Amino acid sequence: MTNTNASDDTAQQAAAIALRALGWILGEERRAQRFLDLTGLTPDGLRAAIGEPGTHRAVIDFLCAHEPDLMQAADALDMAPEELVRTRELLKR
């Protein structure tokens, strides 16, 4: 039997990390623009899709694709870079 509550909690934690990471990304204009350019999102599109799992995956994928961003985001979020990578795997489920 699967514990759906634990699974739901894990998904919620992964989404919360992705949203914190998004806040970090958007905190610097050039990085935010690069995120929008690479994802194809517009500011309005991002606002509309902020709660979507695909958006959360895009945030973590963005960080994992560029090690300097991954390291800086992990530091800013007070977590190990490996935690962000694990979050990526959780969001792909």
Report on the architecture of this protein.
The protein has 93 residues and is an all-alpha fold. It has one domain (21-91). The chain is built from six helices and no strands.
Keywords:
mainly alpha; 93 residues; globular
Instruction: Count every beta strand, where a strand is a DSSP E run of 2 or more residues.
Output: 0
Low-confidence stretches: none
Task: Give the fraction of residues assigned to helices.
Answer: over 70%
Sequence of secondary-structure elements: HHHHHH
Shape: globular
Structural domain tally: 1
Average pLDDT metric: 92
Look at the helices and sheets and give the structural class. Answer: mainly alpha
**Portion in beta strands:** under 5%
Give the oligomeric state: single chain
Q: Brief description of this entry?
A:
Helices cover 80% and strands 0% of the residues.
Which secondary structure elements does this structure contain, and how are they paired or packed?
Layout: H1 4-26, H2 29-39, H3 43-49, H4 53-64, H5 67-76, H6 81-91
Helix pairs in contact: 1-4, 1-6, 4-6
